[in-house]
Description:
Blueprint: H1 28-40, H2 44-50, E1 53-58, E2 75-78, E3 95-100, H3 101-106, H4 111-129, H5 134-139
Parallel strand pairs: 1-3
Antiparallel strand pairs: 2-3
Amino acid sequence: xxxxxxxxxxxxxxxRRRPIDGFRAGDPGxxxxxxxxxxxxxxxxLLDHLQTVVIQVADIPPPDPFGRGDEVLLTRYxxxxxxxxxxxxxPVPTDRLTLYRRPLESRARSxxxxxxxxxxxxxxxxxxxxxxDDDGIEERGWG
Length: 143
């Protein structure tokens, strides 16, 4: 018997796009509020660094940008190299931190879990950019 909806031809779901299960924040505004709340709980040295970083939210990450296999990004930090001469010119390019909403939502089962996951992902991304490894995060009591 032929399936009239052609379900047999559908490919497996793209894990970057739609959470199979997990907590959905609903609309992008709710997710943005969760991000704002999570960012406010970060340690002061990381918050100070984030003052010069553009934080944005995208629905899905690019497909495996580093060519490591089936890796799905939760966040991505793009840093711009600066020299002494860059400080004299205007405007200075800013660093950018992108959070990918769908993969983050797919890993959380509740609003609280999603907020904690966002906080953890940002904390690790910024700390690693500043040269602080996972052990350093734990030593500082941030993790």
